[in-house]
Amino acid sequence: MTNMDKLYESVAANGPVCVGLDTEISYLPTTDTAKTAGENVVEFNRALIAATKGVAGCYKVQIAYYESLGLDGMRAYAETLKMARATGLPVIADIKRGDIAKTAEMYAKAHFTGDFEADIVTLAPYMGLDSISPYLPYCKDQGKGVFVLCRTSNPGAKDFEYQKLADGRHIYDLVGDSLTEMGKDYMGECGYSSIGLVIGGTYTEEATAIRAAYKNTFFLIPGYGAQGGKAADIAQYLTKGNGGVVNSSRGILLAYKKQPGVAFDEAAYNECVRMREDIQGECNKL
Amino acid sequence: MTNMDKLYESVAANGPVCVGLDTEISYLPTTDTAKTAGENVVEFNRALIAATKGVAGCYKVQIAYYESLGLDGMRAYAETLKMARATGLPVIADIKRGDIAKTAEMYAKAHFTGDFEADIVTLAPYMGLDSISPYLPYCKDQGKGVFVLCRTSNPGAKDFEYQKLADGRHIYDLVGDSLTEMGKDYMGECGYSSIGLVIGGTYTEEATAIRAAYKNTFFLIPGYGAQGGKAADIAQYLTKGNGGVVNSSRGILLAYKKQPGVAFDEAAYNECVRMREDIQGECNKL
């Protein structure tokens, strides 16, 4: 059973909410000045994970927020991965690494074993398929998975990703097609391969076509809430409410700011429930 | 004076060799079993930096090799950056990060301040120009610099980078053109902007055109030696021996294997001198 299979089962059981632990120290309602920034972030994450584990489909940890705190932050990163994985839910390390094969081997070792071990990692495709291949032995042997950047919904996505190629496809189509082809050799029991794609949850015009083109590809869908993605849009990228996880980071971490008098962890739980109902409600309408 | 200016001056004084500290534990001729892998790597790097500082144009530290050792490796990474920067030579952190603006802000903070501070970082362009912009305030205010992936020489580069767009350009042309345009607002005294490009040192057919198209753009040129780039090829990407730095990692770190009876640090020094003469010799022929 692959980690993509586990993700599929978790979405079926708990819904598609991916809790993004992009924890910036300024998000914490209170801090303990006797502790380092990283230690404070760990305590916040610990409470957040405990509160949301029944309503999250998975966790995603954005490593940049931890790198920004230096060595103290990297310790917090390792500890956060450990806590999140202890829930039994799949944990995605949002690292977006992309480098030549020899270097990619090092990144694969870094993020699929040891202190920074995660279940699934995100990758960047620019340098080509040989920058993805070194992660695949871990998919084959240990059930690990990858989500490769394909079509994101940040304003800059139009600069390169959305550009048209000579054959009429967008760059993101070429990336999506190539990775889907590669994924055929890494198919899980659930019908989705261990090579997933990052597909932004906004811009609906091509959503149905994208979902139909990549039937066996699991999607990591950022953009809900803070980035402007609506549940009705996002439902188009799912198949009967599965085949994708929908990330929210600030929407969940900072939910307490919109729920006066409610503790941050309880507010995060409430927001996960609300978000899940919002998305599943739209899925049921399709 | 920007870090790209410092790099230009260093290449003029010391030559274009970029010593790549992609140090894998298996590269070390001997290890001290009382020390951690990271501590052993630091001692190797310390000797290597001491031996090569008179013949290196700059240092480049590939973070993947350090990440692969977990927290121990990240301590070695911080220490290696510190030792390399203490030479006064510019130090490039080869991190190839690329993410949405808010996350890129975190990466910029991570790698331009604190434990992991470097002078220049490498970036990946796939997500667009808003994934590059957050690094630019550091270029403006503190003279930091970036090298953005453009046209690499790994086999997979043909999968996406070399594909043709509807307008006849390659994807790498669009990336190079866009970043060069962006760089106009970040021009240094030396005539090169703080936004450089990563351009592989192999495949010569378009080398002259690329150098001519990006006159004010400094190149980080990987691919010498181990990856098949020859000095005659690489000279085409330089302008009178400057405007670029040429990376060699394994060629320098493992030079001792081709120089029996010579200590690893002395062998590395010899290889830097040989490589510099090789490249400068070809530059003088042009």
Q: Can you walk me through this structure?
A:
Two copies of one chain form a homodimer. An eight-stranded parallel beta barrel of chain A has the order 1-2-3-4-5-6-7-8, surrounded by six helices. In chain A, α2 (37-52) runs parallel beside α4 and α2 crosses α11. Chain A is an alpha/beta fold. The longest helix of chain A has 22 residues, at 264-285. In chain A, 42% of the residues lie in helices and 14% in strands. The first copy, chain A, has helices spanning 3-14, 37-52, 63-67, 70-86, 101-112, 136-142, 171-183, 207-213, 231-235, 250-253, 264-285; strands at residues 17-20, 58-62, 91-97, 120-123, 145-151, 195-199, 219-221, 244-248. Chain A has eleven helices and eight strands. The mean pLDDT of chain A is 96. The first copy, chain A, has one domain (3-285): TIM Barrel (Alpha-Beta Barrel), CATH 3.20.20.70. Chains A and B meet through α3, α4, α5 and α7 of A and α3, α4, α5 and α7 of B. Chains A, B: Keywords: Decarboxylase, Lyase, Pyrimidine biosynthesis. Chains A, B: Belongs to the OMP decarboxylase family. Type 2 subfamily.
Brief account:
Chain A is α/β, with parallel strands linked by helices and 286 residues long. Chain A has helices spanning 3-14, 37-52, 63-67, 70-86, 101-112, 136-142, 171-183, 207-213, 231-235, 250-253, 264-285, and strands spanning 17-20, 58-62, 91-97, 120-123, 145-151, 195-199, 219-221, 244-248.
% residues in beta strands of chain A: 5-15%
CATH classification, class level of chain A: Alpha Beta
**Total number of β-strand segments of chain A?**
8
Radius of gyration of chain A, taken over Cα atoms and rounded to an integer in Å: 18 Å
Quaternary state of this entry equals homodimer
What do the pLDDT scores of chain A average to?
A: 96
CATH topology of chain A: TIM Barrel
Could you spell the SSE succession of chain A in H and E letters? HEHEHHEHEHEHEHEHEHH
- CATH architectural designation of chain A: Alpha-Beta Barrel
Summarize the biggest pleated sheet of chain A: 8 strands, parallel, barrel
Query: How many structural domains can be distinguished in the coordinates of chain A?
Result: 1
Family (chains A, B): Belongs to the OMP decarboxylase family. Type 2 subfamily.
Catalytic activity (chains A, B): orotidine 5'-phosphate + H(+) = UMP + CO2
GO molecular function, one term (chains A, B): orotidine-5'-phosphate decarboxylase activity
EC number (chains A, B): 4.1.1.23
